[in-house]
Design goal:
The chain is α+β, with helices and mostly antiparallel strands. Helix content is 48%, strand content 14%. It has 3 domains: 9-112, Butyryl-Coa Dehydrogenase, subunit A, domain 1; 118-232, Butyryl-CoA Dehydrogenase, subunit A, domain 2, CATH 2.40.110.10; 233-377, Butyryl-CoA Dehydrogenase, subunit A, domain 3. The strands form 3 sheets. It has a 4-stranded mixed beta sheet with strand order 1-4-5-8. A 4-stranded antiparallel beta sheet has the order 2-3-7-6, with no helix packed on it. A two-stranded antiparallel ribbon has the order 9-10. α4 runs parallel beside α8 (231-267), α8 (231-267) packs parallel to α10 and α9 (279-307) packs antiparallel against α10 (313-338). It is globular and about 80 Å long.
Length: 384
């Protein structure tokens, strides 16, 4: 099903009205000071947008993944960044689909009204990288408790989250690594600076990235999501959502860059005429626009499959790949269009340029997606 231009129009206008309150100067200042966008997150929460995937019975909107993708796209198109919002959306599926009624009743209403934040996703480790099944963080069952020790890295926003979705090994003897991992929902608040220590990582973008250390963290068994040993399966459910939502952010970035470069090229005059009359300016922008449109159509298809509970692994992965490339093409074209001014913080291009570069690497690198396409779709032998 192909969307029309009026689909989701009310939602788009609503999120745009929120974003208008937060100018690009707001985002530039946060970037310079490496600050978390607290006011923006609170505004989105109060407007109900961060609870879009939470069922109405828990105080959410009960919307689907396509609605979430539209929200993130519009944030990025406005010149903002959805990093402080997207984790709460894409890891929500694991809790909703596999979490116990106890966990849902305990946390979802407070997440929906903003009293709690679920922004931290503890999966990646320094020694494993994308080899998730080789993680070393270990949870030992003792009676009705789990004792957790280990380390996570690139856990963004852990400092600003109350809850963390944590993947840990629960069976070192299991030969099938896939069955050795379990997923936990941890309330971090009682343990900060004691059993849980968070160390910020300075990066080229303002994503509040951290390392998180767990030292004899003891949690009740009711923190376990689903069954022990099925954690990898549960996060796979969330990865398609992650791919689709990150693709939407890329589409938003691409539209931001195309909007910026088109307007500038039509307004900027050199040698007595707008630089937009030059095909050397027109063609890279036109090419980026064309790639963006194609990627957006695949994103829409992937969301439609996901929302109808159909297999969307191919669409989610390739949509993320193509959207990341489209946003990067648009960023490059905009840098060339603005010329020297693109390096000035005043024009905001350099910040967005840095931010959109991330999507070639994370949350899954383009090479890993190409490996997925090679092995899973085309049938080539595994390269790893």
């Amino acid at each position: 099903m192909i969307e029309t231009n009026t689909d989701w129009q009310d939602l788009r206008e609503g999120i745009r009205s929120v974003c208008k309150k937060f100018s690009e100067d707001y985002w530039r200042e946060l970037d310079q000071k490496r600050k978390y966008p607290t006011k923006f997150v609170n505004e989105l929460t109060n407007a109900g947008y961060l609870a879009c995937l939470i069922p109405e019975k828990y105080g959410g909107s009960g919307l689907n993944i396509r609605a979430a993708s539209v929200i993130l796209e519009e944030i990025h198109r406005s010149g903002g960044n959805g990093a402080a919002c997207h984790a709460q959306m894409y890891i929500m599926g694991s809790l909703l689909k596999h979490g116990s009624e106890y966990l849902k009743d305990k946390y979802l209403s407070n997440i929906a009204n903003g009293d709690l934040r679920l922004q931290a996703f503890g999966v990646t480790e320094p020694t494993s990288g994308t080899d998730t099944m080789s993680i070393k963080t270990y949870a030992v069952k003792k009676g009705d408790k789990y004792n957790i020790n280990g380390q996570k890295i690139w856990t963004s926003r852990a400092e600003y989250s109350d809850l963390m979705l944590l993947l840990a090994k629960t069976n070192k003897e299991e030969k099938n690594k896939r069955n050795s991992l379990s997923l936990f929902l941890i309330d971090m608040r009682p343990y900060i600076n004691k059993e849980i220590n968070i160390k910020p990582i300075k990066t080229m973008i303002n994503h509040s990235s951290t390392e998180v250390f767990f030292d004899n963290l003891e949690v009740n068994e009711n923190c376990l999501i689903g069954e022990e040993g099925r954690g990898f399966e549960y996060i796979l459910d969330g990865l398609n959502a992650e791919r689709l939502l990150i693709a939407a952010e890329c589409i938003g970035d691409a539209k931001y860059f195309i909007d910026k470069s088109t307007k500038y090229a039509n307004d900027r005059e050199v040698f007595g005429r707008p630089i937009g009359k030059n095909q050397a300016i027109q063609f890279p922008i036109a090419k980026a626009y064309s790639r963006m449109i194609a990627a957006e159509l695949l994103l829409q298809k992937g969301c439609n499959l996901y929302d109808n509970k159909k297999n969307c692994g191919q669409e989610a992965n390739i949509a993320k790949l193509l959207s990341a490339e489209a946003s990067w093409d648009a960023a490059e074209a905009t840098m060339q269009t603005f010329g020297g001014f693109s390096f000035s913080e005043e024009y905001h291009i350099e910040r967005k340029f840095r931010e959109t570069r991330l999507y070639q690497i994370a949350p899954v690198s383009t090479n890993m997606i190409l490996a997925y396409v090679s092995h899973k779709i085309l049938g080539f032998p595994r390269s790893y």
